[in-house]
Design brief:
Length: 170
Amino acid sequence: MRLLIQRVLEGSVSVGDQLVSQIGPGLVVLLGVHEKDDDKIAKKLAHKLPKLRLWEKDGKAWNGSVQDLDYELLIVSQFTLYAVTKGNKPDFHLSKRAEEARILYEFFVEEVKKAYKPEKVKMGAFQQLMRVNIVNNGPVTIELDELPGEKPEKQEKQEKQVKIQQEVQK
């Protein structure tokens, strides 16, 4: 599962001329569902999301979360996050099929609601051509990427760096 998280002053989703959802300060999350994703991964990331410390709080940078600051979340499905380019044409074979992805997307949103406040969690329009408006705050953009049974390469590198730093400090 891949989450592209953007700290925003406001965000909204429309389909045609119809407003679907909107939020004030908080996070707009573009959510890609990988063909191997499952409920366990979705639940883990859903419970982590409201706790990510992406704002200043108590005079300290990166100390406040959506949960701490009573902000909102707008979660938008985006299968194109798993695009693989072959030449000039993107291929989306790593994305979960639409109906299975819809089930996992809706499960993810429900888990975020359980982890936070249901009234503060909004959705995009699954499998629709959406207009997503985002007013970035920073900008701050964070990517969370996790697959069942695998550690992302970035995470492995970070863990190695932390171990090296700990060894040097001894």
